[in-house]
């Protein structure tokens, strides 16, 4: 059986006697590989490799580092097809969505190719008599990223591209559920010219995570996952003095105003709610029609559109979405569907019991739709992370704004309307980190930054964009004065004032 190993010192490395985890094919339910689960000793070996390689990498000028990323971008584009198939085989998302996963990460690689401009400091001539002041951005050293199962290419690329471009060495701990693509990314970076040891991939579970958080030579950690674990990682890492950036879960709302183009809104909501089987932190699992007329017009459109969705295996080019990632996750989603029923919401479409002929062992769920969901319900308060759409009716725009604003999560939100004034008011007042106006999945482009509020984000800096550059560098400010011949200035015991 295929075994997924670590990637240290520029090559795949196995550790004899390692604990092994199973890697399933979500389309069939069968075990397709085993992944080594690294202990603290593996993390230590990866950090030692990174520490040895990082100074020389940081000493390379930014333009030459950018050239490595340019070549890496070319290789990602060259290998898009096999990477997408490998990704889909372990995650379950359809091939077209897997390509989107890679492309959104590639966009950040492309952004990081402009690192020479982004690393420029500031300069002030004549800040005082004969005194100039300038600043420089320098890498932190060895940094790490801990990434989730739902985007095994995009999120590692969001982290490692700016980190490497800034001159750091990077330790990547991907999800043990779909570990193969991150290793291929590392191999492609070596092919692109990255020196051995600058990027290391440690496979593992909580043991590896804790070893990363405890290691004194890792200066910063970026994390994406569920909110409870994000908070744990943030607190544990910050307590040991590391710079931390931890993205958590979400419960994104789509507000539909009476003047919205309902057909377009429904088309957008279908992809945002059910795409990737709902396994996205930027999915849109809650739709909020404003006013009874809007709700009554919207509901039959949602039902018809959801019933028309095709669920299939990852390689089915006609499928809108595939299976969820594991049997345990499927059972969890089914428990939340039953919870919604028990809490009194109306189950309009039930995706449980869905079976795909020829793939009966796969982790498939059909599209599920609830109506008359109330804010006090736990099934509304929690992130379900599956192909489940909940309708929460609101009487007014103010009431609709309060729903995402008061929710524990504050990742993304969308509004569907033709009214510019209402959209502007909504964007200004809603207490959520990323807002879409007639855009159902408002993931910012690579030269802005990604990040949510409240329990969706722990830490002060967001992912990628200039925040990514700020996260992976530290600023050093130099105040300089050059002596003028043999002139000696008088002693002063007063704090310098530049006067």
Architecture overview:
It is a single chain. With 499 residues, the protein is of the alpha/beta class. It has two domains: 2-248 and 456-478, Aldehyde Dehydrogenase, Chain A, domain 1 (3-Layer(aba) Sandwich), CATH 3.40.605; 253-437, Aldehyde Dehydrogenase, Chain A, domain 2. The chain is built from 16 helices and 23 strands. A seven-stranded mixed beta sheet has the order 15-16-17-14-13-19-20, sandwiched between helices.
Please describe the topology of this protein.
Blueprint: E1 2-4, E2 6-8, E3 11-13, E4 19-25, E5 30-37, H1 40-59, H2 62-78, H3 80-91, H4 95-112, H5 115-118, E6 123-128, E7 131-139, E8 142-146, H6 154-165, E9 169-173, H7 180-192, E10 199-201, H8 206-214, E11 218-224, H9 227-239, E12 243-247, E13 253-256, H10 262-274, E14 286-289, H11 292-307, H12 327-342, E15 346-349, E16 368-371, H13 378-381, E17 388-391, H14 397-406, E18 409-410, E19 412-416, H15 420-429, E20 434-437, E21 453-454, E22 457-458, H16 465-471, E23 473-481
Parallel strand pairs: 1-5, 8-9, 8-11, 9-10, 11-12, 13-14, 13-19, 14-17, 16-17, 19-20
Antiparallel strand pairs: 2-3, 4-5, 6-7, 7-23, 12-22, 15-16, 18-21
Helix pairs in contact: 1-8, 2-4, 2-7, 3-4, 4-6, 10-11
């Amino acid at each position: 059986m295929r075994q997924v190993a670590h990637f240290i010192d520029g090559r795949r490395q196995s550790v004899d006697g390692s604990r092994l985890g199973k890697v399933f094919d979500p389309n069939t339910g069968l075990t397709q590989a085993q992944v080594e689960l690294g202990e603290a000793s593996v993390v230590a070996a990866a950090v030692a490799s990174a520490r040895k390689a990082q100074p020389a990498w940081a000493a390379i000028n930014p333009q030459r580092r950018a050239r490595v990323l340019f070549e890496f971008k070319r290789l990602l584009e060259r290998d898009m097809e096999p990477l997408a198939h490998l990704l889909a085989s372990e995650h379950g998302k359809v091939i077209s969505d897997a390509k989107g996963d890679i492309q959104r990460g590639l966009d950040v690689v492309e952004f990081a190719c402009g690192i020479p401009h982004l690393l420029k400091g500031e300069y002030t001539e004549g800040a005082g008599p004969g005194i100039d002041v300038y600043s420089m951005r320098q890498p932190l050293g060895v940094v790490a990223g801990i990434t989730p199962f739902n985007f095994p290419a995009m999120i590692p690329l969001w982290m490692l591209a700016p980190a490497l471009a800034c001159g750091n060495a990077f330790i990547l701990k991907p999800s043990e559920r779909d570990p193969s693509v991150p290793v291929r990314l590392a191999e492609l970076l070596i092919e692109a010219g990255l020196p051995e040891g600058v990027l290391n991939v440690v496979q593992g579970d909580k043991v590896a995570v804790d070893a990363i958080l405890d290691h004194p030579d890792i200066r910063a950690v970026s994390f994406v996952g569920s909110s409870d674990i994000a908070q744990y990682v943030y607190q544990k890492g910050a307590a040991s003095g590391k710079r931390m950036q931890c993205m958590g879960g979400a419960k994104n709302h789509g507000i539909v105003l009476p003047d919205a183009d309902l057909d377009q809104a429904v088309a957008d909501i279908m992809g945002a709610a059910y795409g990737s089987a709902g396994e996205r932190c930027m999915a849109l699992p809650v739709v909020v029609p404003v006013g009874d007329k809007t709700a009554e017009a919207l509901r039959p459109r949602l039902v018809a559109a959801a019933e028309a969705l095709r669920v299939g295996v990852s390689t089915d080019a006609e499928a809108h979405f595939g299976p969820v990632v594991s049997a345990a996750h499927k059972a969890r989603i089914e428990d939340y569907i039953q919870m919604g029923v028990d809490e009194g919401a109306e189950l309009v479409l039930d995706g449980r019991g869905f079976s795909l002929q020829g793939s009966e062992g796969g982790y498939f769920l059909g599209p599920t739709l609830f109506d008359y969901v109330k804010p006090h319900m736990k099934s509304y308060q929690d992130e379900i992370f599956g192909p489940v759409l909940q309708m929460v009716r609101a009487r007014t725009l103010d009431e609709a704004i309060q729903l995402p604003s008061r929710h524990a999560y504050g990742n993304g939100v969308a509004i569907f309307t033709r009214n510019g004034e209402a959209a502007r008011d909504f964007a200004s007042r809603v207490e959520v980190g990323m807002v879409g106006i007639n855009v159902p999945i408002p993931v910012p482009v690579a030269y802005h930054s990604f990040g949510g509020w409240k329990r969706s984000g722990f830490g002060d800096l967001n992912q990628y964009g200039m925040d990514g550059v700020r996260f992976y560098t530290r600023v050093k400010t130099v105040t300089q004065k050059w002596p003028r011949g043999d002139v000696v200035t008088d002693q002063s015991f007063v704090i310098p004032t530049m006067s």
